[in-house]
From TrEMBL:
Bias (Polar residues) ranges: 20-37
Name of the protein this chain belongs to: Pentapeptide MXKDX repeat protein
Organism of this sequence: Chryseobacterium potabilaquae
Organism superkingdom: Bacteria
Bias-annotated ranges (Basic and acidic residues): 51-61, 69-81
Amino acid sequence: MKKLLTAMSLVLGLGLATAQQTVPATSTNTQPTTKAVKTSESKTAKPAAKMKKDGTPDKRYKDNKKLKKDGTPDKRYKENK
């Protein structure tokens, strides 16, 4: 019985010890990626909803009536499902 408990604790200990090890990440891409051309997409695109200074949607506008505080559509309303 003592040998069985020793063997089980050894297996359990080795199992937990190997579960905690992490494999170092190796990079397969050796060239750094840089973006040389900037797009003017951010200058021409309008925000989806009018926001307050603190980043929450302004509820005075019709488009923002059914948005949550983080700006995502509220799923309680039929048109957002």
